[in-house]
Specification:
- The protein is of the alpha/beta class.
- The protein has three domains: 148 residues, no CATH class; 213 residues, 3-Layer(aba) Sandwich (Rossmann fold), CATH 3.40.50.300; 201 residues.
- The chain has 21 helices and 20 strands.
- The strands form four sheets. A seven-stranded mixed beta sheet has the order 12-20-17-13-16-15-14. A six-stranded parallel beta sheet has the order 8-7-9-10-6-11, with helices on both faces. A five-stranded mixed beta sheet has the order 1-4-2-3-5, with helices on both faces.
- A hairpin with a 2-residue loop joins strand 14 and strand 15.
- The two termini are 49 Å apart.
- The C terminus is likely disordered.
- Pfam families: SLFN-g3_helicase.
Length: 593
């Protein structure tokens, strides 16, 4: 059998027909092809647009593309990947593989729709995937890619890309949501939907995928060839396109860092725009309503509370007055969103609420219960992040659960998670060194911590914030895209810079804000050791004074989020000696060092 070869041909009818005559495989063999905007006389052209496809008849398919005026205008040549070993399944797999990597590489824009991305098993799949590496290396040499596969897969552009193969529960949610949305549009009904999932189940993936899918349906043409392998192909109809005419969609992201990362993805994605990624305040002040607002991390929307700045406090009053005729202090940012849009989709996990200003737990529970009762609740359960398995998230939350243990429930059993590097570390310097080693090996290894140290370096760059075991460290020097910043490996990230992101390895520092009362056999909070001012301040506007138990719930949520960032492993350093001894009892000996 021959190895994969890549042939380059001008994107012109005469050139295609002449090429097709040189080999019978050009008309009757499964192939993968790329259409790009390269100058064929330049080896590393720096592409602007690229399209990836698969077909059993390369000549006919390329000639069909030439009938599309947009592709004929944008694209200059095509490359065909030929391999005597390929079959239809292998080509579908390679096509999806290249689309995902091209979108994550970020050098140029992928023109494909996202509804045809697959991740299906087939005979000898692993053998074929070994050959995909050869194809990638050839394309890298030709300038199609600018980074290695590990570099691409560690990037936000890859992790937040709309070009994902959905899990079964994600696909069911997307299909049901879109089908219901079109039904509601035909009936002129507005509704609120809930997508609920624990960390790593892909809530953000679903939000971004929906944005792209709706944009693709809206932009599709009647003569587009349907993708028979896509469960979403039935949505690409004239009737659905008409329903989306002038349809205004926005993605609301409360967290600054995550919002900036998603805007970078949208900038490189046809049909999407960074201006569609919004703050709750932007929604509130806008004079033009939205047809649909999708809210990621909706549990981080704010109720009425002291905001980070006086300007935002004034805006909260002005927006509420504008939308509801008076300054109603019971109104939340969710109320703004519902007032400014016909349809809403909320991505929620109530256990990831980390500040008192977040939407109150009783409101979130009521929304979830109402959505379940009305058939508008879509659960996500497949664990896509942590390689320890789906039960790792529940285990972490069980050992950090506030309050007294349930006398009728057995205590969490000591656990080892096979294939997952979970360990205790006694010396912070050792953990930092280990994180450096993991970063050199795999990338995306970072130290993170609860807000148990004052942010001295914010006003004094020469100061250190965390000093333990002879190691001196500073908090994150940037709030935006900290994980990818040049100094992040020598800093410590807070909950506000890492929530919503993946790491390969997380070194989690549990400070003295969270402690263990051995006599009472429960977690307790030390207010004096918790330095997130917005994380513990009372709410005089609403007449709320937060108890230690309420504060403990938020701090426990913070650490549960931090302990579920690591894909390959999590290292744990605990300051409080009693808590250290307690947590050690729940991790098997093979997970310790």
């Amino acid at each position: 059998m021959t190895s994969s070869e890549i042939q380059r041909i001008a994107f012109e009818k005469d050139a295609v027909r002449a090429w097709a005559k040189t080999d019978p495989r050009h008309r009757n063999w499964p192939v993968v092809y790329l259409l790009d905007a390269a100058d064929k006389n330049v080896k590393a052209p720096g592409l602007k647009e690229v399209y990836v496809g698969e077909t059993l008849n390369a000549e006919a398919r390329i000639l069909q593309h030439l009938e599309n005026p947009d592709k004929k205008r944008l694209l200059a040549q095509f490359r065909v990947v030929l391999d005597d070993r390929y079959n239809k399944s292998a080509c579908l797999d390679l096509e999806s593989h290249l689309i995902r990597l091209l979108a994550g590489d970020g050098t140029y824009r992928v023109l494909n729709r996202n509804d045809g991305i697959t991740d299906s098993n087939y005979y000898d799949r692993e053998l074929y995937r070994e050959s995909f590496q050869d194809v990638f290396e050839q394309l890298l040499d030709e300038g199609i890619f600018s980074r290695s596969i590990p570099e691409i897969e560690n990037s936000d552009l890859f992790k937040l890309s709309p070009y994902k193969a959905l899990t079964t529960d994600q696909a069911v949610a997307v299909e049901s949501i879109v089908e219901g949305l079109f039904d509601d549009l035909e009936e002129n009904i507005g509704e609120l939907l809930i997508v609920q999932g624990e960390p790593g189940t892909g809530k953000t993936v679903v939000a971004i995928y929906l944005m792209k899918l709706l944009a693709d349906i809206k932009a599709s043409r009647p003569d587009d060839e349907p993708d028979a392998d896509s469960i979403f192909s039935d949505f690409f109809t004239d009737g659905h396109r008409q329903l989306l005419t002038d349809f205004r969609v926005g993605l609301v992201v409360p967290q600054q860092s995550l919002r900036k990362s998603i805007q970078s993805v949208f900038k490189r994605t046809p049909g999407l725009s960074p201006i569609q990624v919004l703050t709750p305040f932007q929604v509130g002040v806008s004079d033009e309503p939205w047809d649909l607002l999708i809210v990621d991390e909706a549990h981080r929307l704010n109720q009425r509370a002291n905001q980070p700045s006086g300007i935002q406090n004034r805006q909260f009053i002005d927006i509420t007055t504008k939308l509801f005729g008076a300054d109603d202090i019971t109104k939340t940012q969710l109320d703004w969103i519902r007032a400014r849009s016909r349809h809403q989709i909320l991505m929620v996990d109530p256990a990831q609420s980390v500040r008192p200003a977040d939407l109150p737990p009783n409101l979130l529970r009521a929304l979830v219960d109402e959505a379940k009762a009305d058939g508008r609740h879509y659960p996500l359960v497949s664990q896509l992040r942590v390689k320890a398995g789906e039960d790792y998230i529940g285990w972490v939350r069980s050992i950090l659960r506030p309050g007294l243990p349930d006398p009728d429930a057995p205590p969490p059993a000591p656990r080892n998670f096979e294939g997952y590097d979970l360990r205790f570390v006694e010396d912070l310097g050792e953990m930092h060194d280990a994180i450096r080693e993991r970063d050199a090996e795999h990338g995306l290894a970072r130290l993170v911590a609860g807000y148990a140290w004052e942010w001295k370096s914010r006003n004094d760059p020469a100061a250190f914030d965390i000093e333990l075991d002879g190691r001196q460290l500073r908090w994150n020097t940037t709030a935006t895209d900290w994980i990818a910043s040049k100094t992040s490996l020598e800093e410590v990230g807070s909950i506000h810079t890492v929530q919503g992101y993946d790491l390969n390895y997380a070194g989690v520092i549990i400070g003295n804000d969270l402690q263990w009362d051995e006599d009472a056999q429960r977690l307790i909070v030390d207010r004096a050791s918790y330095f997130d001012k917005k994380g513990k301040e009372n709410n005089p506007t609403l007449g709320r004074v937060y108890s230690d138990d309420e504060l403990l719930r938020y701090i426990s949520n913070v650490y549960a989020v931090l302990l579920t960032r690591g894909i390959k492993g999590t290292y744990v350093y605990v300051c409080d000696s009693s808590l250290r001894a307690h947590l050690r009892r729940h991790i098997g000996t093979s997970g310790t060092t």
